[in-house]
Amino acid sequence: MSEVVVTGQRASLRRAQAIKQNAAGVVDAISAEEAGKFPDQNVADSLQRVPGVSVNRTGSGESSQVTVRGLGPQFVNVLVNGRSIVSDAENRGFNFDTLPSELISTAEVYKTSAADIVDGGIGGTINIRTARPLDNEGFHFAGSLSALNDSMEGGLDDKSTPKGSFFLSHANADQTFGWLLSGMYYERKHRSYQVNQQGWYVSDLTDPAVLASLPPAFHRLREQGVEEVATPETTIGNYTTIDSVRKGLSAAIDWNPSDSLKLKFDAMYSNYESDQLQHGLGFYGNTNDITDIEVDDNGTATEYTRGDTGILATDYIVSTLPRDAKVFQTGMNLAWQIDDTTTLEVDLSRAKSWNKYDSGDSYRVVGTRNIGYVPHWTNPGGGGFPYYNYDALTPSDAISNLYSHCCGMGGDHRTNRLDEVKANLTKSFLDGPLAQLSFGALASNRSTRFIDMGVDDAMSLCAFYCGYNATTPADAIGAYVFDAGNWFGGHSQGFPTQWVSYDPDMYMDYLTTPESYMQLQGLKTDEEIAAFVAALEANGGGWATHPIQRSYWQVKEKTSSFYVKADFEGTMRDMPWHLDLGYRYIKTDTVSSAFVAPLLDVRVNPTDTSNAIGTFGEPVLTRAEGSYDYWLPSANFRLNLRDDLVFRLNASRTLTRPELSQLRVSAGYNFRPNNQTVSTGNTNLKPYLSENFDIGLEWYFADTSYVAVGAFFKNISNFTTTVDTQVEILGFPFTQTLPVNLNEAKVEGLEFTYNQQFTGLPAPFDGFGTAFNYTHVKSDASIDEAILSGAGRFAIPGIGDSANLSLFYEKGPWQARLAYNWRDEWLSCLSCGSGSQPEYTKAYGQLDMSAAYSLNDHFSVFVEGTNLTREEREGYMLYENRPTFINFEGRTYTFGVRAKW
After folding, report:
1. Position with higher pLDDT, 641 vs 722
2. Which of 101, 3, 94, 122 is nearest to 51 (CA)?
3. Which helix (H) or strand (E) holds 13?
4. Three-state DSSP class for residue 43
5. Are 883 and 491 contacting, i.e. CB atoms less than 8 angstroms apart?
């Protein structure tokens, strides 16, 4: 195992270097004791220090999922103590923000495979290890208390939040029994600013039906030879606050009743709660009222003018999103040393995660209709963000001229469960080249279940209220002027510093009153109003939610596997070598079930032509099955060319199973008239398969310093690709999407690592050290804009270079580290947002720091900081002059004290 330990302690680096030199595979690791000195809120933030590992940031101020060697979260298999784990993610990617770094001992990143490694990760396998009671002798205590400060303006914010952790363990004198308990608590109040387009619609002007649906301005473009036009869905500014609480607890017992028998029990629980509140000001796009438009050579709109009929409203948006993610895992391990050379190990575990909330997921809009105003939209290009003539669209009397619009509220219940049992038998040999023979088997049952919480169709807010037709008194909804600050105007030219906001619960209550819904007489039939009122009364007069049967889906996955692995050792021309050869066989059976409701009717909402309304029949329980099996060979070779020079060669076949949501049998509909889609899953999907090859060379030129270079190649087949088919449903055009195994791609790259401790410098400079790594990744799957804009587009999201550079110091009571993490531009999604276009995230770098001073043997004080240079993240769709978002999350400081005994 090659270990990159995040610390300045030379003893730890020396032990890690010895392990690295003796490993056959390519493995990197971090240690929680040292990683705790970083400003890392979760394991993902620590893992980004590892060569080839990049993180996906979510806008919550911390990282959520990881990419290994350019392959995204779904290609990364995550284990805890060697056992499979689940999180609240809908698909296979693991949400590391549910896992506090305070609860782990080490995190190992396996970049090459072996027969005894649990299958599932083409990109890599990450094994999180919690601390063991018998790691230390006697009684041990460690703890920390700190204050966390999120700052948007450059200095310190006037409010801080608490964070604390503890660690208790005890082992008896003869090291036969020990217990361990650790826990943490963390609060955070985070803010972020964002301007967003929420996607780009691409209109194919060569399609007569599409052209016929567009106004004359687009016909003039077609006469000029323009074939397609891209226009944004919206232009919006969002001021977001997230209040979060993370709690974690882990416990373990080690018991060795005899020299030949060892028992281990451990349990881990983590709860991540967050409440997101977003104040938005938006201007929704609609091609129907565009009177004049200009485009560039790639068909992107550079500016357009819209009519003064009020189709464009100014939207005042308040949205909320709760999260109550819980992760629990428990396991028991028995190791029996049958004789001096034979060991049997049996391991049982259960993991469960759930995120359940009945309501609180809401998107609510009131607006002012811009009748008599001529909206003009400008796309400045050159990396600038588009803007409207905001002064004309945000009148000073807006708060007294509000109209109800949309959209709804609800919740969902998502549950993941995984039961796993495995056994391993190992036989060692003292003579001959065969050093060890291993056999093992594994059986697991995984299930994922999902259902929406909402109200009946008769109470659909958008179907009833959309269109800005009912006046909404400011005092009835607690409306007020919200002060958003100057950041937005610095990115979308002229964006207001203030806009209308309101109490979302008061708004929902007002919509249930006759003063509100009776305003729709003449726009809605008496029968429609009566049906809305009846449904409201049947629901207790409010918006209490219940399970929506047609949204229910479940996927069950049963996997069995067994392996055999042989380890060989010897010398060649006085050079020691190690070789392991192995085969792993896996078989997976899936059962997918869902309540599928037939679509009976589709009609354009007469009060809001940008929306359509679907009517469904009674749901019917539907079931489908799938199955596959594969052999997965592996070989790992290490040759010590000299005492300080190691050569490695690795080959394997690995797989990653298809996304769980793509295996469901239910159908999902989008009823936007200019982008109507129906998406279904495919239970016959096969796993991604990859043929992998690695080669590496490592030179250990000093006691705790080395240079390593490696190359890797992956030939990946069975890529799941979404195929779009144009169909007609009930007289309306729809795009039907279906995932199929269609494409293959080659991924190749280089990794370079340089670590050096400058122990030869005169004091006090001999405490300095540095660590640098760079990973270059490329793929033959096209990312050419001309190809990606077509129907047969295919590329691998996540592919891109990454690098880490850190300078650290440890001398006497002082410790400090400055670390820069960088990720090059990458394709974040192949079919994203409104318009389902490829989206890129621009290159992003972040500078972090940590420093500590030991007061004595028991106490130390520390400070940590993230995003010191206050960087922003940016994205665009297909072409850089189609920006999608700019996101700013500010800088975070943590001040605290640590204690240990």
Report:
1. 641
2. 3
3. helix 10-22
4. helix
5. no
Instruction: Measure the CA–CA gap between 390 and 387, rounded to whole angstroms.
Output: 8
Tokens 């195994």 found at: 741
Residues 246-256: pLDDT tens digits? 999 999 999 99
CA distance 198 to 220: 27
Residue ranges with strand state E in 340-402: 342-371, 376-378, 387-388
pLDDT digits (tens, 9 = 90+) for 256-283: 999 999 999 999 999 999 999 999 999 9
Q: Are 482 and 501 in contact (CB under 8 A)?
A: yes
What is the rounded average pLDDT for all residues in the chain? 89
Look up residue 403 and give its two tokens: 């109209």
- In this structure, the number of other CB atoms found within 10 A of the CB of residue 571 comes to 11
Question: What contacts 93, CB < 8 A, 6 or more positions away?
Answer: 65, 72, 73, 74, 76
What confidence tier does 34 reach under pLDDT thresholds 50, 70, 90? very low
Distance CA 284, CA 680 (A): 28
DSSP string covering 497-556:
SEEEE--HHHHHHHTTSHHHHGGGBTTB-HHHHHHHHHHHHHTTTTT--EE-GGG-EEEE
Whole-model pTM: value is: 0.90
Distance (Å, whole) CA 551 – CA 597 = 9
Strands 261-284 and 290-295: unpaired
- Cα separation, 441 vs 464, in Å, equals 57
Higher pLDDT, 4 or 578: 578
Distant-in-sequence, close-in-space partners of 847: CB < 8 Å, separation ≥ 6: 818, 819, 820, 867, 868, 869
What is the DSSP pairing of strand 546-547 with strand 553-572? unpaired
Could you tell me if 267 and 332 are in contact, meaning their C-beta atoms sit under 8 angstroms apart?
no
| Structural contact between residues 62 and 97, judged by C-beta atoms closer than 8 angstroms | yes
- Tell me if the bond preceding 764 is cis, omega within 30° of 0: yes
* Kind and range of the H or E run holding 569: strand 553-572
DSSP character at residue 400: G
pLDDT value of residue 4? 42
For 864, counting Cβ atoms within 10 Å of its Cβ (0-12 exposed, 13-18 middle, 19+ buried), the class is buried
Q: How does DSSP classify residue 494?
A: T
- Say how many residues make up the chain: 901
* CB contact at 8 A, 103 and 252: no
Nearest to 319 by CA among 445, 198, 158, 496: 198
Backbone Cα Rg of the chain: 29
Q: How far apart are CA 345 and CA 666, in angstroms?
A: 41
DSSP state of 198: -
Reported as a single tens digit per residue, the pLDDT across 684-710 is 999 999 999 999 999 999 888 999 999
Q: Look up tokens 């609240």; give the residue.
A: 88
The stretches of 163-215 forming alpha helices (DSSP H) are 208-212
Tell me how many degrees the CA angle 785-790-792 measures, rounded to the nearest 5: 110
Other Cβ atoms less than 10 A from the Cβ of 740: the count is: 16
What b/e readout covers 372-400, taking b as 16+ CB neighbours within 10 angstroms?
ebebebbbeeeeebbbbbbeebbeeebbe
Phi, psi angles (nearest 5°) of residue 567: -105, 130
What residues contact 643, with CB distance under 8 A and at least 6 apart? none
Q: Pick the closest to residue 399 from 319, 336, 476, 291 (CA basis).
A: 476
Separation between Cα atoms, residue 55 and residue 687, nearest integer Å: 24
CA–CA distance, 734 with 737 (Å, rounded to integer): 9
